[in-house]
Amino acid sequence: MGKLGIFAIFLCSITMVVPLVFGVAEGPKEVEEWFHSVSNHHHPNQKVTKMHFYLHDVFGVTTKKVAKPNTTAKSPTFFGETFMIDNPLTVGPSQASKLIGRAQGLYGFSSMEEVRVTVAMNLVFTDGSYNGSSLTSLGHNPVLQPKCEMPIIGGSGIFRLARGVALLNTYSHDDIKGNTTVEYNVILQHY
Ligand SMILES: *[C@@H]1O[C@H](CO)[C@@H](O)[C@H](O)[C@H]1NC(C)=O
Ligand SMILES: *[C@@H]1O[C@H](CO)[C@@H](O)[C@H](O)[C@H]1NC(C)=O
Ligand SMILES: *[C@@H]1O[C@H](CO)[C@@H](O)[C@H](O)[C@H]1NC(C)=O
C-alpha cells in the first residue's frame, strides 16, 4: 500500500482510470488568459513570467518516506504517510535533459476520505538567470483527479513577492520502478 501511495503522488491525469468528474478543467492556455485578464492594468511594475519544465520523482531515491503512523496500513487513503523530496527539474521530459533546478520539500497524505496529499515545497533554480532564485508552492494535490493545480505562494531572488499558478500533468509513470515524470506549466507575477 505504501508503494501504491508513492505511485499515486503527482499523478494528476489518470484519465484511463478516473473520468473527468468535476467541471471543465482549465489547461495552461485558459489559465494564462485568466491570468492576464486579472493582472492587467493594476500593477504596471509587475512582470509576468511563464515557465515550462519537468519534475522527476524517482521512487526511493529522490523521494524518501520519512514518517508513517501505524494506522496508515489500515487506511484506504494512506492517511499520515509522509515523504521528503529532492526531485530534479529538467527542461525536457527525459531525466538526461538539462537540469534547471530541484523541487525540495515535503508531502503527506492528509485526507481520511480521499487519496489526497498536502505538498509544501520549494522549486530551487540552479541555471541561467534564475540561478539562486526559488519559488514556494503550498497546496493540496487530489492525486486521483485528472487535472491538478498548485498555488505558487512566494519566492526569493528575482521571484521576490511572486505569486502564481502551477498546472501539473503526469507525463509518464513506470509502475515497476515507480519513476514518475510530471510536466509543469507555471505562470506568475513578480517584480
Ligand atoms: C499503534 O500504536 C499505538 C501506540 O503505541 C498503539 O496503542 C496502537 O495499538 C497501535 N495500533 C495499531 C493498529 O497497531
Ligand atoms: C549558479 O550559481 C552558483 C552560485 O553562484 C554557481 O556556483 C554555479 O556555477 C551557477 N550555475 C550555473 C549553471 O550558472
Ligand atoms: C528511474 O530512475 C532511475 C534513476 O534516475 C534510473 O536509473 C532508471 O533507469 C529509471 N527507470 C526508468 C524505467 O526510467
TrEMBL record:
Pfam families: Dirigent (PF03018). It is found in: Secreted, Extracellular space, Apoplast. Belongs to the plant dirigent protein family. It comes from Actinidia chinensis var. chinensis (Chinese soft-hair kiwi). Keywords: Apoplast, Secreted, Signal. One of its GO terms (cellular component) is apoplast. Its main location: secreted. Residues 1-23 form the signal peptide. Homodimer. This is Dirigent protein. The keyword Methyltransferase does not apply. The keyword Signal applies. One of its GO terms (biological process) is phenylpropanoid biosynthetic process. InterPro entries: Allene_oxi_cyc_Dirigent (IPR044859), Dirigent (IPR004265). Dirigent proteins impart stereoselectivity on the phenoxy radical-coupling reaction, yielding optically active lignans from two molecules of coniferyl alcohol in the biosynthesis of lignans, flavonolignans, and alkaloids and thus plays a central role in plant secondary metabolism. It comes from the Eukaryota.
